[in-house]
Structure formats: structure tokens, C-alpha cells
Design goal:
This protein starts with a helix and ends with a strand. The longest helix is centred in the first third of the chain and has 28 residues. The strands form two sheets. Strands 3, 4, 6, 7 and 8 form a five-stranded antiparallel β-sheet that branches. It has a four-stranded antiparallel β-sheet with strand order 5-2-1-9, with no helix packed on it. By secondary structure, it is of the alpha+beta class. The chain has one helix and nine strands, in the order H-E-E-E-E-E-E-E-E-E. It has a domain of 102 residues: Immunoglobulin-like (Sandwich), CATH 2.60.40.10.
């Protein structure tokens, strides 16, 4: 192979390398894009929080018989201004002891409990907590006082 062939091949390689470099520099300019619409995004993100149930209403019936005092409670409704789609946990407590529970998506529930009659008036507590996925509200509560003797029915 002569030195002219070497020069021709070197010139060809140099020409190919130059063409590739120019092509690589030109490609990003060809691939650029612009957005011309001023339309608002379709996805909107907001925040919310779990609210404490309030305005709890319902009826109750306290009964004392023998050595037992008992209560039957029906929660008829309450106010929840938190996010839609919540479910609710209901509880009926006597002091620090939970006597009955219920849960569901309805804003009403029936609960009942009993204890040994101690001859004194008894304060029962109805509690309601909102739940949505892993989020929970504070517990809204309503107290009901049953008399030391006899039977009492009422509303709260």
C-alpha cells in the first residue's frame, strides 16, 4: 500500500468523523419542543383534615334491676365536617372501661352496657371517632348520667 492510499483512507476517516460530530450536534436542535398552551393543569392537589365528630344526638334508657344497672343507647346522628367517605367507630364507656363498640359508614349506631349496681348515679360516655384510610379524628363524646335508682329514658 502506498502513502497516497494511506492519505486517502485517513482523509475518508476524518471526513466520516466530522460528519458524525456535526450530526450529533444537530440532533438536539431537531428534537427540541415548546409548549404553547396556557391551559391550566387538570390535576389539582388540596389538603384536608379529620374533624372531631360533634352535635351527637340520640336516645337512651337506663335500668336498674337486682344488682345490675344497664343502659341502651341509640346514636341517631352527629355532625362530621371532615372529608367525605369516612367510616366511624362508636364506643360506650363506663369510666375507663369500654362496654360496647360498633363501626360502619352510617352516622347511627346502637350500643349497650351493664355493670354491678353500686347504688350511686352512673355516668356513661358515648364516643365517636372518624376514620379515613389511615387517618383518624379526635374522639367526639357525649355523657349520659343514669340515676341512682329506678329507670330513666331520655334524649341527648
Amino acid at each position: 500500500m502506498t502513502w497516497i492510499d494511506h492519505r486517502r483512507r485517513a482523509a475518508a476517516v476524518l471526513l466520516v468523523v466530522s460528519a458524525v460530530a456535526v450530526a450529533l450536534l444537530a440532533v438536539p436542535a431537531v428534537a427540541s419542543a415548546t409548549f404553547g398552551s396556557s391551559r391550566a393543569a387538570a390535576v389539582v392537589t388540596t389538603t384536608d383534615r379529620m374533624e372531631t365528630p360533634s352535635g351527637i344526638t340520640g336516645t337512651y334508657r337506663c335500668t336498674r334491676s337486682g344488682h345490675t344497672e344497664s343502659i341502651a343507647v341509640t346514636v341517631t346522628t352527629f355532625t362530621d365536617t371532615g372529608p367525605a367517605g369516612s367510616s366511624y367507630g362508636f364506643s360506650l364507656g363506663l369510666g375507663s372501661t369500654v362496654k360496647d363498640t360498633a363501626s360502619g359508614t352510617s352516622r347511627s349506631a346502637t350500643l349497650g352496657g351493664s355493670a354491678t349496681d353500686d347504688g350511686a348515679s352512673t355516668t356513661w360516655t358515648v364516643g365517636i371517632q372518624g376514620n379515613l384510610n389511615r387517618w383518624t379524628s379526635d374522639v367526639g363524646s357525649k355523657s349520659i348520667v343514669c340515676p341512682a335508682s329506678g329507670t330513666r329514658s331520655g334524649s341527648f
